[in-house]
Amino acid sequence: MAPHPYPDHLFGDLDQPAKGSLHHITRNRGLHHAYRVAPWLPKPGGAFRLTATSSSDLPVQQVFLRYSLDNGESWQEMRFDAGELRWDTLVWSWLRDWQLDFPALLEGEELRYQVYAELPGGKRCFADNQAAEAAGATTFRLRFTHNNQPPAWSEEAVVYQVFVDRFNPGKGKKWLQTTDLTKPFGGTLRGVIEKLDYIKDLGFNTIWLSPIFCSPSHHGYDISDYLRVEPRFGTEADLRELMDLAHAKGLRVMLDFVANHCSNQHARFQAVLAGDQSAIYWFKWKKYPVYESFYDVPEMPCFNLETGSPARAYLLEVARHWLRFGADGYRLDYANGPTRDFWLDFQQACQEENPDCWTFGEVVTPPDEQITFAGGMHGTLDFLTCQALRETFATGNWNLNHLAGYLEAYWAAFPREFSRPAFIDNHDMNRFFFTAMGSVSAQEAALRLLYLLPGAPIVYYGSERELSQRQSIHANHALGFDEARLEMDWKEQKDHISAKVMREMAAFRQEHPWLSRASWHTLELNDHKAIFEVTESKNHLLVEIGRQKNTWRVTFR
Q1: Which residues make up the CATH 2.60.40.10 domain(s) of the chain?
Q2: Are 225 and 270 contacting, i.e. CB atoms less than 8 angstroms apart?
Q3: Could you tell me the pTM of the whole model?
C-alpha cells in the first residue's frame, strides 16, 4: 500500500523530530520536577519518592523540598540526595537527578510543595518555572486518598463519539446545508435520541457528545455559557430526555468539558470589554490589555484557573452541575492547558458529586508526562496507540516489527489503573478511512485490534459506514479539522463491513472483559505475520496479524 500523499500528523505533532527535540530540551534545561512521583499515584500509608533534574548550565549546589501539610500556613524543608551525572545530547549538557523519599501520609492529607536549587551567592532557582523567589514559584500538590480509581464500568466501556452538529438533524428535519464546513449543518440532541437504538445495536455502551453548551461555533469548543444548552442543538429538556432514555437502554453519556478557554462571547469576557475591572481576574493576560488565547485564536480567551480565581470556582460548579443533571463523566479538552493543581480540585469535585463518574483528558505529551495527570483525572486519551494503528494499517509507515516493538514496550509504560481509552481517529485528524485511501481491510484490521487492546475503544461517528472526507486537513485551501467532520448520510441502508466488525468485536469484548487487563507478548514475527499471546491470569488468547500485498487481516483464537 502506497503511503498517503499528505502528512498524518496527530494533534500535538511531538512525533516530529524537530518539535519533539525542542520539547525535550525545554523540559530538561534548568531545574525541573514536573510531578515525577513514584509510585505514580501515592496512596495513604505508603512512602513515596520525588525526583527533580538539573542541567549543568545551572550551577546547582544542593536541591531542597519546601513543603506544607496545612494548606500553606507553615512550611518545612527537606534535602534531596544527588544522583549520578549523565550526558544528554539534545540538551548538550550534563543532567543530574535529585531524589527525596517522603514518609507516608494519612488518608485525606494533602501535600503542597516547591522544589528549589541553592545556587552560589545565596540565590535560588525554583522548578519548573525557574522563579527566583518562593512567592512566584510553581507549587505542586498531591492529595492522598484511596477514592481516586476509575469506576468499574469504565473497564468495559465501548465508546461512540458523536459530533453533534454533523450526526443527525432529527425526524422531519433536513440538514441546514452541507457545503460550508465552517457553518452549522443542523445536527440536534433529538437527532441523537432517535439513534440511541442504532448506537446500541452497534455494540456501544457509552456515548461521548461533543460540547453541547451555548457557543457561537458549530463545533462548540468555544463556549459562551456553560450552564445552558446551545439552542441549535435543542433544549435542556432534550438533554434530560437523551440521558434518561440512554440510561434506560444501558448506555452511559459523557460530556465534552472545555476548561482551558471559552468564547469571547462569554458574559465575563464581554464584561472585561465593557470595562468591568472585577472580570479581568477571570482570564490570563500577557500584559493587559493583551490577553492569552488558545493557540492565539482571539475568539478563544484563556481562563485564569489559579487558586482563588472566580473562573476556577465557576468551572468546578459547572462540573458538579452537569453530573447532578445526569452526565456519567467528562472527556477533558486540551487537558494539558490548565495546571495539574486545577485538575486535582476538578477531580475531587467530580468524585464528591458522583463517585461513579469517569474522566479522561486530551493530553498529547510523552508517556512519563501523561502519567503525572494521575489524581486529577482517571486517565488520558491514547494518542500513542492511535498513531501506532494508523502508521501500521493506514499509511504503511510502520512494519509489523515496529508495531510489535511498540506493543511490547507499551504495557510497561502505564499502570492498568490509569485509563487509556484508544481510538483510530477523531474530530481533530484525518479520518482513518481517508488516510487508508479507502482500504476496507485496513480499517477492519485496525478496528479488530483496537477492540482487543486493553484501553476502552472509542469509535468516531460514521466509521461504521466507512465515512470519509473530501480532502486532507493538510491540503492546500483545506478548512483544517472540519474536512474530517462531514455529515452522516442516513439515507444509505447498506450494512458495511466496519459495522459488522464493531458488533462482533463488542460482543467478544463483553464476553471477555479480562482483555482490559491483559498483557501482550510476541510469539512469532516476520515481515508478513505477527502472532501475539494475550494473557491475564488464567485467560489466554492468540492474536495473529497478517498482510498479503495490500490486504490486512486480524484473527484470534
Answers
A1: 17-143
A2: no
A3: 0.96
